[in-house]
Amino acid sequence: MTTAEESMLRANAIGTPLTRLDGTEKVTGTAPYAVEHPVDSPAHLHPLQAAIALGRATGIDTSAAEAEPGVLAVLTHANAPRLASTGNGELEILQSGEVGYRGQFLGGVIAETPEIARRAADLIRVHYERYEHDVELRADRDDLYKPEQVNPAFDTDTAQGDADGALASAAVTLDATYSTPMEHNNPMEPHATIACWTDGELTLHDSTQGVYWTQAAVAPLFELDQQQVRVISPHVGGGFGSKGIPHPNVVLAAMAARLVPGRPVKFPLTRQQMFSVVGYRTPTIQHVRLGADEQGRLSAITLDVVEQTAKVKEFAEQTAIPTRTMYAAPHRRTSHRLAALDTPVPTWMRAPGECPGMFGPEVAMDEMALACGLDPIEFRVRNEPETDPESGLPFSSRNLVACLREGARRFGWHDRDPRPGTRRHGEWLVGTGVAASTYPVFAMPGSQATIRATPDGRYAVRIGAVDIGTGTWTALTQIAADALEVSVGEVDLEIGSTTLPTASGAGGSSGINSWGSPIVAAARTLRARLDEHGGTVPAEGVEATEGMPDNPHTSQYAMHSFGAQFAEVWVNADTGEVSVPRLLGIFAAGRIINARTGRSQLLGGMTMGLSMALHEESVLDPRFGHVVNHDLAEYHIATNADVGSLEVDWLDEHDPYVNPMGSKGIGELGITGTAAAITNAAYHATGIRVRELPLHPDKFL
Ligand code: MOS
């Protein structure tokens, strides 16, 4: 960095497009990911996975595996450490031979090389007793149940007024069912762990979104105190939610390491293994009903969601949540019902709840706008609520309309002929579409930051946060520099370990909010202490530690980010192929801490939304209970060829209520609404209304 750049950053570190502080390490391959940490004489684990969907392993013959040269140990339920019963059926593996889903871990081989471990695992013979399994989600199942709460602690159902009555008397109505498929998180770095036991304590180099969250889940299973489990994770190659809490792979690595005391055990999952053990986005079935008057004012909104969970552990996706906030209507109802299946356990996947939950309702808004004879932007503007429709709280800031208007201007929306199927370029049918985005402002409790000033003019900032590729290293350094009123070059940030002060994980787009707030608080305290020393730092240094300050505004305001997504879609009239030459997202998410990494977050979210729209679908074979397209050859993810121009911008939004930085969180906002905008554009292109993602070519033929 040049001196000129440094002095510019000193003036206002927050908001500047600082390049990633870990960028050089990342692109030169020196940033260590989980299994790349140098450890002495590592052993290697390959898992044994259930080949049936439901039943019991009645016999596991490990003799051939054990006889292989280079095999150190074979792990099965017969010799696995006993785990404490914590009620977590996903993590409590190898406590018996029972099989709850296909691919569940039944054991593993620990060997001198990964190749030996893999070959030996193939030599294990398992005899099963099979039970009849049940893996099919349908809305007409008679065993659907109502969970007590939905992720993480929202009301399962809500109701205001008389939605059925309002629908019966509405001038215009819509009654349609939408669905989103099972989808799998595919971060670039597979889930991976090095586990090592020393003197009864466990060290995990783990690819995780939260070092303290992993510690909190693993310690009680092995009946350890929290501090007896050390979790280290300085660099993570993506997570998207599936690394938010540990999955059975972390437990299997820790169990395996018990069998080879003193030796670290490396366990990186293969891409195919990830499709059965690290979670997925549950498929959803969304029944939407809307009622409006002749002027296009909504009188009723209902959303009834059916989705799956697993018998081994409940995960209830909060799919109806955004519908509770998006549009005004006096009569409202939302509900969630679950089918518990013999499948792996669903988990968080980028904007769990909001991402699938902004598909059905935002396509429904497009359909309803047409039914009311209104432009889809005008229809949304007409139904903009003054306060949060269900809580009645004022919004801390809400700039959805401004995003729609600015996006329309930038996209050239107003030249659009609203009639579907009227534009054509050769064999391509051309259309444009819009949808809204939203995501709540979450703050996790419990983080602490320590800042230490030393006489050499440096500031050491320590917090057990993690950087999953989002830019945490850079953004937290900027926040600290800003609050300390020093340059970013004077700040030494340490994150990514449970040896640092306690912190929440990277999830719910809450990282900057939850880690930045205590950093700002600690910086204020430190500056006050430095003032007491007359501005000079004594030889022993000066230190301050602060936790997450209380924010009285959280109970007074509804806090959400908003955005508008615009898509141009071409559908091939002969093949049904869908191509997206233009995507534009305009967002309002408070103050953007770093314009470069922030833009990257929003672009990444929209790219994942594009991928959801066009490709992503995990195909579960009902006969065998496994995902058949379980790798990147067959589970398609969007690439450059799927999109032409992908543009992101944001409004200058000032929100004094959310936190001391004025930032709202942007990791998940960008994925919400994207698939709906593309689907609405595909309808405009073709006149074919697709209500089931993804938009595979057959839907247009
Ligand atoms: Mo995000 S799906 O809350 O990690």
From TrEMBL:
One of its GO terms (molecular function) is iron ion binding. Pfam families: Ald_Xan_dh_C, MoCoBD_1, MoCoBD_2. InterPro entries: Ald_Oxase/Xan_DH_a/b, Ald_Oxase/Xan_DH_a/b_sf, Ald_Oxase/xanthine_DH-like, AldOxase/xan_DH_MoCoBD1, AldOxase/xan_DH_MoCoBD2, AldOxase/xan_DH_Mopterin-bd_sf. Residues 28-132 form the Aldehyde oxidase/xanthine dehydrogenase a/b hammerhead domain. Keywords: Molybdenum, Oxidoreductase. This is Xanthine dehydrogenase molybdenum binding subunit apoprotein. It comes from Halopolyspora algeriensis.
